[in-house]
Amino acid sequence: MGLEWRLAWRNIWRNSRRTALTLAATVFAVFLVVVFVAMAAGLHGKMIEDTVRVHSGHVQISGVGYLENRTLEQFLRLSPPVVQVLDSVPHLVAWAPRVVAFGLLSKESSTQGVALLGVDPKREPQVSTLSQRLVRGAFLPEGTQRGIVLGERLARNLGADPGDVLLLYSVAWTTEMAYELFTVTGVMRLPEPALDRKLAVLSLSDAQSFFVYGDRISEVAIRARNADDVPLLEKELARRLAASSPVPVEVHGWQEVMPELRQLIFLDDAGMYIMLAILVIVVAFGILNTLLMSVLERRRELGVLLALGLRPASLFRLVYLESLMLAAVGLAIGLALALPAVLLLQGHPIPLGGDVEAAARVFGMEPVVTFRLKPLNPLGSMATVFSVAALAAWLPARKASRARPVDALRGL
Amino acid sequence: MEALLAFLGALARASTWRMAGRNALRNPRRTGIVVSAVAVGLGGILVTMAINFGMVFEMVQAAIQTELGDLQVHHKGYDDRPGLEVRIQQSPARAQDWLRGVPGVRAWAPRLRSQGLVFSPRASVGIDLVAVDPSREARVSVLPHSLVEGAWLDGEPRRLVVGERLARRLRVAVGEKVVVSAQDARGEMTGEAFRVVGIFRTSSRELDEGAVFLRMEDGQRLLGVGSSFSELVMVAQPHADLEEIRAALAARLGGDLEVETWKELRPVLVAMIEVFDRMGWIVYVAVFVAMAFGIANVLLMAVYERIREIGILTAIGMPPGRLVASIGVESLCVTMVGVAAGLAIGLGGVWLLRDGIDLSAFGAGLTAYGIPLRIRPVIRASDLWIPLLVSLVTALLASLWPALRAVGIRPAEAFRHG
């Protein structure tokens, strides 16, 4: 066995140029796979965090049927047992109650339809980044009565600035018309254009009195440490709330609150993996060709080995070992280059500019390319490239084991 | 310099190509593997890119065909503050005069837009109010032809067509009444009851859950705007030059109106196309770099095999430029056969998928991003010339090392080698 390993290792370096080229191809493939997978992980992770943190939260609790209908009719109450569950469940970083509704906001003769979000000014900043996105004014300062914060584009469309008084008009929970004057306290810039054009934030208590909603709320938005904790948190919340909440409630992770985001990520991943698969296949063809050539070149030598009594199975192993060693060396160099690169990029996201920036915002992303190295990435990349290389080596190895001493000797 | 001249001269000679072609065929198995690597790689990428671009293309098409049209006329300032205040203060019928003598416009339709609330006995939702000329709208938009229930607007007053998602949220069916409420041009709240006559489904979630369509006359009365309107949507003849139409129309409009193409109305769509273009370059270059290693490897092998032969050629006075050219041409031949096969595979794949790929299995949520549920792959000219250009450069670069190695072979070394 030891002899075969030594022989294989020496054979690899007999034609150092060829080996260098084959190695380079493997290194290139490993490098690209690791970097691209890390980029997708970073991009998607950021997409999730960005979207979730702007507004929806990692997990939401709501009344039964709220997700499908999203009207005032589906509500829940923050009864003491519910609050107790929220305060005690592990992995939960913060929670905030909200009222979600529609309305028309008008200033003089201009009107805009708005998505209203009634928030608890103290709790909301712990869950969402809304309050950090102010560009003018303040976020519902304490003691303000009937203050409202507008998305930047919404403010522009209305021609409204902090201090202006707007008329809010909607239908209350009692199905009566509701009118009220609100003062703009601040303007926030939201990354997603659709949200920037539509969102208006007011205090929870104002929203409850405007909509004659009593102590009802639409949802509780919950922040987890990160998206990876969501499945666990979701399950635990559902279990505890089912046991202690006086009325049935629903618990939904971000994947259910925003199914479109999950599907977009899936589609994007699918496209990327297809591209990488093609790349790896191309490299595999290169490896196959090199090995085949090296076997054909050595026909004479292999024939002599067989004539001397080496068994075909050993020959197969010898050639197979060569290719696996080659692949292993390529993988090692590839990873040695890719891992530091990705770790470096992980700390230094690449900002995007121009057209790409605008396109990124449509999909609700900050225009930065971030990288994230998950442990599965180098392992998976290694396993994939290695098994493809092993597959590509099969044909040349078989060819070698079938060499016939007579042909080999006659051939040259 | 001399070497370069010899190189260029050799490229022009038919014998160089014949020799390179024969050399490539001396080891058919080896050449076959390189050719198939190039073919499979290029073919696969081509199909993937075509599907990707097909998605973008459908997104753009869907936006143009349901909302944007090819061009729109607005009163100046509407882009900055879209709303009821900024209107075209003329009757929609005037469009006939504007468009007289403007070539290339196939159809036009006026719209009046504002925002309001719609409520059923069960729920209320904020919506975009779009008042249209029913028969003209049907010629500029696919929305009137995308009904899943009921019928499109006709001449009857106080009728409403709503999106499928909106109908679900309001829990109304065709034939039932809803109240539409909005602020009119004087700033007063007004409301009227409408009967839902049709329910549509498009690939835009924004439209499906947030827009209602009504007759122009109903909209103008409800909003108290007389006979004025918000925008004129135009659809151009196929292959018409939008810039030409814009210039011709702008010359006929008053100074307070402006014409814009869909590219200006929704710059993000243009940005998306450009992002995909750039992505195409990255992908093609990455795959061809991967191929370059394989190509270089094979040529290097070929040079080694022929050390003796090359030595003889050098000894009898073959200029190095010609030697480099013959290896470069061999590389080109092998690569180009692969590229041709790859293009054939790619185009064949696209042809097989011409009926489109059904994405509805992934769920309807994609429509939130305007991604349609059926994607037909689209091949563009750049999908053909970028790989051709990249492969040309790749083939020549990959032949560089082997060629230089060949030039470095000294006759004495070659004879010893044999």
What does this structure look like?
By secondary structure, chain A is an alpha+beta fold. Chain A has 2 domains: 2-52 and 261-411, no CATH class; 65-247, no CATH class. Chain A has helices at 2-12, 16-56, 66-69, 80-88, 124-127, 152-158, 193-198, 204-210, 230-244, 254-257, 259-297, 299-307, 312-347, 354-362, 376-401, 405-411, and strands at residues 59-63, 76-77, 92-107, 110-119, 134-137, 147-151, 165-171, 177-188, 199-203, 216-217, 219-224, 249-253, 350-351, 368-369. In chain A, a hairpin with a 2-residue loop joins strand 3 and strand 4. In chain A, helix 2 (16-56) runs antiparallel to helix 15 (376-401) and helix 11 runs parallel beside helix 15. Chain A is elongated. The two termini of chain A are 30 Å apart. The mean pLDDT of chain A is 86. By secondary structure, chain B is an alpha+beta fold. Chain B folds into 2 domains: 2-63 and 269-417, no CATH class; 77-254, no CATH class. Chain B has 15 helices and 12 strands. In chain B, a hairpin with a 4-residue loop joins strand 2 (105-119) and strand 3 (124-132). Chain B is elongated and about 100 Å long. Chain B starts with a helix and ends with a helix. The model of chain B has no long low-confidence stretch (mean pLDDT 85). The chains are: A alpha+beta (412), B alpha+beta (418). At the A-B interface, helix 2, strand 3, strand 4, strand 7 and helix 11 of A face helix 3, strand 2, strand 3, strand 6 and helix 7 of B.
